[in-house]
Here is the input.
Amino acid sequence: DTAVSQTPKYLVTQMGNDKSIKCEQNLGHDTMYWYKQDSKKFLKIMFSYNNKELIINETVPNRFSPKSPDKAHLNLHINSLELGDSAVYFCASSPDGLNTEAFFGQGTRLTVV
Amino acid sequence: GDSVTQMEGPVTLSEEAFLTINCTYTATGYPSLFWYVQYPGEGLQLLLKATKADDKGSNKGFEATYRKETTSFHLEKGSVQVSDSAVYFCALSDLGGSQGNLIFGKGTKLSVKP
Here is the structure.
C-alpha cells in the first residue's frame, strides 16, 4: 500500500504542450510538496501546501500551477512546456511541515522534446 | 539563507570498506538534520535523522551525529555493501530559515564494488 503515489512515472511530451502530474498520499499528513530534481540530481523545492493552502512558491515560473482539491492530493499542472522543464518531479508529504521528515513518491520523469 | 554542503562524489569503495560522507550546514534557526538515500530509478527514502545537538541517528548500519559546534552531520558506515550503492543526500529543515521545508545538499553518489 503505497504511502505517496504519483502518476505518471514517465512523461514524454512536445514543447508547448500542457501536462499534469498527479500525487496522492494516504498518510493523513497535512503538508505536501513538489520538488524538482535536475539532471545533476540537485533537489529544489517548488511548492509547499499545508492543508490545501499554498505556503511557499520558490520563484517558480507561473507556467507551473499546483492544485490541491483536498489535503490528500496535490497535482502539478504545467503549461507551455519548455525543454528546460525536463527533470524528475517528486511529490512528498510530511505530518505538519514543522522540522519533520518528508515522505517521497517515486518521481515522475518528464522529458520535453 | 539556509544551505547544506556535502562532499562531492562520486565515491567508489570496495565492499567492506569504511564510508564517510561529509555534510555541513548553515541555518538561521535550530534545524533538524536528515540523510536521505536514492537508489537508482527510485524516490528518496529517509535513512536517518537527528533533531537536536549531540543526537545520533542510526539505521541499517549507517550513523550520523548532530554536531552543533562544527555545524556538521557526517554520514558513516563501518562496512559498506554492494547494495549500498546509491545517491546520498544530506538535508535540513529549519522553521526559521526554510519555513520547515527540506533544504538538500547536492547529493553524493556512492558506488561499491565487489
